[in-house]
Amino acid sequence: MKNYFQLSILRSLSLLIVLFIAVSFRTHAAQQYEIDPNLDESIKWYIGATGKVDDGKAKTLLETAALTKDPLAVMWIARVYSTGRMGYPADKDKAKAIARGVIADVEKLAEQRVPEATFLMGTAYAEGLAKKENPQEAVEWYRRAAKLGNVLAQHNLGNAYASGTGVEQSDELAVKWWLMAAEQGDAIPQYQLGVMYETGKGVTKDLDRAKNWYQLSAEKGYGKAKTALSRLNRIHRLNR
Questions:
Q1: H-helix or E-strand containing 225?
Q2: Cβ within 8 Å of residue 97, ≥6 positions away
Q3: pLDDT digits over 192-216, tens only?
Q4: Is 140 helix (H, G, I), strand (E, B) or coil?
């Protein structure tokens, strides 16, 4: 009986060691992988984290990154063709064909908890890029990436809660995730937070906060925020 318990303990310890090594390997792999600097800069110009939204600069940097055959940059090319982002023409068939060539590499990096790859897996399931469209699966990948700090995953998770796509609709949770993205400089969630504070959805109505968020987004060149800010300023002048 004593030998049986000793053997059980040894087996349990062995299993724990194997699990520890596996987790350590995945963490190390994620730490070792560095996003292409041109892709990283492209995303910052695309969302406005540089201080301005500039699709032209974002596009040039993305294409430079994709020339290296980096799978995440190539998957981003698929993503922009998917719905016509970043000044690209919308071409769903082309987007799917590009995605099929790199999806295995993207998924492998996502399994290693590389944030950008994890976000792109969410896009794959959300938009049917080399994966069958599945809103629930998209949300799960976005959630993983959002928890790893990926700004566009936080942005898209906020979108999912706002619309109830793949999750139960919740204005409060939309605000939560948009706030995380907005604090990282993403212009569109900044605008969306302005809308939420102006309308009192998911938060207590507060026109001053709405104006502040619109202002941040407008300064980056986001057109809808400029329009909303002008409207609030006009209302304020009329009420003086």
A1: helix 223-238
A2: none
A3: 999 999 999 999 999 999 999 999 9
A4: helix
